Target: S-type anion channel SLAH4-like
Amino acid sequence: MGEIEYKPSTQVMIEASVGSAGDPEKNNNGVSINEVRADPSPSCSYMLTRIHAGYFRISLSLGSQALLWKILTRPDGVSPHVLLHVFSKVPSAVCLLLWCLAVLTQFSLSFVYVLRCCFHFHLVKAEFLHHIGVNYLYAPWISWLVLLQSAPILLPNTSFLYLILCWTFIVPLAVLDIKIYGQWFTTKKRFLSVMANPTSQISVIGNLVAARAAAEMGWKESAVCIWSLGIVHYLVLFVTLYQHLSGQNSLPTILRPTFFLFFAAPSMASFSWNSISGAFDNTSKMLFFFSLFLFISLVCRPFLFKKSMRKFHIAWWAYSFPLTFISLAAVQYAREVKSHVATLLMLVLSVMSLLVFLGLMMLTAANVNRLLRDTDDPMLTFCKNSKSAARVTK
Model:
């Protein structure tokens, strides 16, 4: 018998390309529809759905940086220390240019957000209902107040225009306070123990910035009233967060840069109390030392921010203005104490604030398209889910 020749069996594998009928998220070429939509330049309507109140962190950082350099270059506060002569030599045109850039950014963001309110009001409503997004509704008004305080000599804080503009931006903060602070202890589903997260401290910062603005105008009683409202709520909020009493509304990993708000609030409290009392007294010093302790505690834990630093996000701007606020308090402390250690501390914090600010400016300019197409933004995800839920109920 002849040998039987065995041949390996031939397997025929058929790959079925699943088109839009099998997966609505992909087209016939197997490419995600989201990727196809992301290829062209974003339209105006698309941008309105992406830019939320959290983007005002950029103008807030610009305005606070302008305020820092306005104070550093002010001749009446220059310390005799030799290292500080470099600040006095900074041309006033540089400070004016920085302030103009901040105003331009603020006007641009405000214009876009007004259009968002007109054409996509449901998204603004979703922000207000979100436990994180509602806190950033303070940011536009805080930015305007900081820009007023950092304005050049062309707009003195004793002018009638300054007074009108200042109270125009303080009143919306008071309205938000009544609404949000009232919900914290009267609305069961929005109790502070449920809603508290690090971004809740933005409301406190808003009150403290408003208090300094009122003090700069000479309205001392109003300034003390607003300052006390902010500092009391900060103490309650800090204890709630410190004991981890917040409920199911945890903070997403990508928003961990907002932990820098922990030292931003006491820093601004110290800075604003200096304007109210007219001197950097023991109250201002205690608040400054407390903010410095919180700052060091966070800096010593870089792994806390490791996951949030994998991809550039708009939340990174939460690093900038808290550093500027603590630098502002350090400047006033150095002027009061007039010691080498205080001056060195002021220099270190100011340079660190400037470097972080410049780095974020370059990263933002290089990643504008990525920011507008970012799908990991918690606010955008919540707005999308809210819109889908509304359609289902209809």
Notes: The radius of gyration is 25 Å. The domain at 42-365 is CATH 1.50.10.150 (Glycosyltransferase). The chain has one domain: 42-365. The chain has a mean pLDDT of 81.
